[in-house]
């Protein structure tokens, strides 16, 4: 297992679906966007997004909609080759130290909080890519 990547498995047999490899250093925090939020009580449009923070000062946002959408559309446990994702959809570079935590808001779609060794906690709305608070 590479500690610079995230592996996504399919239950119940835990077959590997994809590996997300966008960081160069150890990943410290992973957060999957909530399936539902207060703003989207049925399904969030970002339900297939993950945010990852590492010993780098950069946060990666990866959209797995294409991969997971195809997977959920098939009922059978097909022997498909795992996909390797090497590019993120979006990224945040507002911190100056390694990222120690990332967490999506359960209330607002696309709102991400992050903390870092730079001593700052930041909140960002991914639609605008603007930090609201430091």
From TrEMBL:
<dbReference type="Pfam" id="PF00400">
    <property type="entry name" value="WD40"/>
</dbReference>
<dbReference type="InterPro" id="IPR036322">
    <property type="entry name" value="WD40_repeat_dom_sf"/>
</dbReference>
<protein>
    <submittedName>
        <fullName>Uncharacterized protein</fullName>
    </submittedName>
</protein>
<dbReference type="InterPro" id="IPR015943">
    <property type="entry name" value="WD40/YVTN_repeat-like_dom_sf"/>
</dbReference>
<dbReference type="InterPro" id="IPR001680">
    <property type="entry name" value="WD40_rpt"/>
</dbReference>
<dbReference type="InterPro" id="IPR052640">
    <property type="entry name" value="Gemin-5"/>
</dbReference>
């Amino acid at each position: 297992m590479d500690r610079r990547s995230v592996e996504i498995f399919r239950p119940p047999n835990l077959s590997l679906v994809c590996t997300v490899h966008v960081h160069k250093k150890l990943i410290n925090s992973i957060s999957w966007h909530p399936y539902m939020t207060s703003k989207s009580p049925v399904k969030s449009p970002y339900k297939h997004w993950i945010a990852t923070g590492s010993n780098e000062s950069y946060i990666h946002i990866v959209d797995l909609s294409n991969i997971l959408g195809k997977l959920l559309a098939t009922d059978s446990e097909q022997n498909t080759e795992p996909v390797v994702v090497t590019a993120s959809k979006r990224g945040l570079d507002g911190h100056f130290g390694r990222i120690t935590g990332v967490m999506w808001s359960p209330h607002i779609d696309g709102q991400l909080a992050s903390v870092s060794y730079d001593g700052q906690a930041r909140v960002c709305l991914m639609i605008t890519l603007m930090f609201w608070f430091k």
